[in-house]
Write a structure and sequence with these properties.
The protein has 285 residues and is mainly alpha-helical. It has one domain. Helices cover 44% and strands 1% of the residues. It has a two-stranded antiparallel sheet. The structure holds fe (ii) ion (2 copies). One fe (ii) ion binds next to loops.
Length: 285
């Protein structure tokens, strides 16, 4: 078993902080109570964002893409990758915290209960498999966290945006105009987002899934765009249309954790069949 590096005790502490920032409409918690997440965020979460915003530069992202996107690390099936991700241990309480497989299955089960198509359920099942980057030795700030474009001005709608003062790109005028190295309306496919589990898994799975699923995987952590409305000037018409799917996916990711713990063993045959419907036995990671 491999432990991830700090500052978060548990990789999912980041997702928990998101659920606090964007409370479900059904939770009865007034949104205003969560406005000041800066004050409420745990010190570890704040430290996590400080590192993330300082180190995610254009150069860093391009280097990680060169390192990982040739997909020459492993040959693994989807279920195998789920079990591999489950070897990630955090300093969390195993009795109360969900394992990675449980989070994935809970997300998928919530989507299934919502009556959505099979590819959508499958997307819920796999959406966080890119977190195996932790097991390849990547620090937490290069695996999880809200994603944002690099190579152009950092939006003040990114959480803890004040920490970008320590990002070297902030001092490069060519990277800090509104569009930076990009053309207005160029489409997000042309834009480099901060490196993490979304982009990595998108490249592993894109050839096997319908376009809305690809968008859900690639942009599910892009909160500045899908939940804060920033970066519309870099999107094209296709992005705007597909972001409806990204937004449709988001509640299942954030709010399915309160549901009953899934029975992984009894659900496994259903999900193995679903995986086989879309994916080959082995994929390049
Ligand atoms: Fe995720
Ligand atoms: Fe997730």
């Amino acid at each position: 078993m491999i432990s991830p590096s700090k500052p978060l005790d548990h990789l999912d502490d980041w997702e928990e902080s998101l659920a606090a920032r964007y409370p479900a409409a059904a939770s009865g918690k007034p949104k205003a109570a969560f406005r000041d997440y800066r004050a409420q965020a745990r010190p570890s979460v704040k430290e996590f964002y400080r590192l993330n915003h300082r180190h995610q530069t254009l150069e860093f992202v391009l280097a990680k893409k060169r390192e990982y996107l040739p997909l020459t690390r492993r040959h693994m099936g989807i279920w195998e990758a789920m079990e591999f991700l489950n070897t990630l241990v955090d300093d969390s309480d195993p009795d109360t915290d969900l394992s990675q497989i449980e989070h994935l299955m809970q997300t998928a089960e919530a989507i299934r209960a919502g009556g959505h198509p099979r590819w959508f359920i499958l997307t819920g099942l796999i959406h966080d498999l890119g977190k195996i980057l932790c097991l390849f030795g990547e620090p937490q700030w290069a695996v999880v966290g809200d994603t944002f474009p690099v190579g152009c001005r950092f939006s003040d709608r990114i959480v803890f945006s004040e920490f970008f003062a320590d990002n070297p790109d902030t001092n490069n005028p060519a990277l800090q105009s509104e569009c930076g190295i990009y053309e207005p309306g160029c489409g997000l496919d042309q834009v480099h987002l901060s490196w993490g589990h979304d982009e990595y898994l998108y490249h592993v799975t894109k050839d096997y899934l319908p376009e809305p699923a690809q968008y859900m995987i690639r942009y599910h952590s892009f909160y500045p765009a899908h939940s804060e409305g920033a970066y519309g000037h870099l999107m094209d018409g296709r992005d705007r249309e597909m972001f409806r799917w990204v937004r449709a996916f988001n509640p299942y990711d954030l709010y399915s954790k309160d549901a009953a713990r899934p029975d992984v063993r009894s659900l496994r045959p259903y999900y193995e069949e679903l995986i086989a419907e879309f994916f080959p036995a082995k994929l390049a990671w």
